[in-house]
Specification:
This protein is of the alpha/beta class and 180 residues long. It has helices spanning 14-19, 21-36, 59-73, 87-93, 113-122, 126-140, 158-162, and strands at 2-4, 7-9, 48-53, 77-83, 99-103, 144-147, 168-170. The strands form two sheets. The protein has a five-stranded parallel β-sheet with strand order 5-4-3-6-7, with helices on both faces. α3 (59-73) links the parallel β3 and β4 (77-83). α2 packs across α3 and α3 packs parallel to α4 (87-93). The longest helix has 16 residues, at 21-36. It is globular. 32% of the residues are buried.
C-alpha cells in the first residue's frame, strides 16, 4: 500500500480483479474505508456510485463493465461515464442494468499519426471534459466516485473531485515495477 495526498490506498493484483469482479466490488467498498478510518462514511452509505473510464479500448472497458455489474448486483445504483465511440460505450449500450453517459475525448485511431495528433490536441480540451464530468456528477449525485482504470484524461476529473464532499477511489493498475 502507499499514500496519495494523505489518503492511504492499496494495490490489488489485476488478475484477482479480472477473475473475481464481485470480490473487487466488495473490496473497494470495504478496504478503503477501513484503511482510512472513514467513520463518517461506511460502505453501506455508498448506494450511488459514479464509475468512469475514459480509455478508448483495451482491458479497461472489460474491467469497468465487470466492476459496474458487480456493484449493481450488490444493490448499488451505478452510473458510468465512458469515452464516446469506445469499447466501454458500446458495451454499455448493449445492456440495461447500468445507466451511462458518453463524453468526447478525441477522434481517430491512436496507432496512426492523425490519431496521435488528435489525442495530443484533445489535451487542450481537458477543462471541457472536467465541466462534462461535473455535470454528470451533479445530475447523478453519487455517494462515491470510482475511477476504474486511470488514464491521462482523468486529470480533468481531479479538480471536480477535490471540491467534492464525497469520497473517491482511483484504481491504479500495474503499479508494481516488474523486472523482466
Amino acid at each position: 500500500s502507499f499514500h496519495v495526498t494523505g489518503v492511504q490506498t492499496c494495490a490489488l493484483p489485476i488478475y484477482v480483479a479480472h477473475l473475481f469482479p464481485h470480490r473487487l466490488a466488495r473490496w473497494c467498498l470495504e478496504r478503503i474505508f477501513i484503511m482510512n478510518r472513514l467513520d463518517y462514511f461506511s460502505p453501506e452509505k455508498a448506494q450511488r456510485v459514479l464509475l468512469w473510464h475514459w480509455g478508448k479500448e483495451g482491458a479497461g472497458a472489460k474491467f469497468t463493465m465487470a466492476l459496474g455489474s458487480a456493484l449493481a448486483n450488490h444493490n448499488r445504483a451505478v452510473h458510468v461515464s465512458a469515452a464516446r465511440e469506445s469499447d466501454l460505450a458500446r458495451d454499455l449500450h448493449d445492456q440495461t442494468e447500468i445507466t451511462s453517459t458518453s463524453v468526447s475525448i478525441f477522434n481517430g485511431d491512436k496507432t496512426k499519426i492523425s490519431g496521435k495528433l488528435s489525442a495530443a490536441l484533445a489535451l487542450l480540451k481537458l477543462p471541457r471534459l472536467g465541466f462534462d464530468f461535473k455535470s454528470i456528477r451533479d445530475e447523478f449525485q453519487p455517494d462515491l466516485h470510482l475511477c476504474s482504470f486511470q488514464s491521462i484524461w482523468d486529470l480533468a476529473a481531479l479538480p471536480v473531485l477535490k471540491n467534492s464532499r464525497q469520497p473517491y477511489i482511483l484504481c491504479l493498475h500495474d503499479a508494481i515495477d516488474r523486472k523482466s
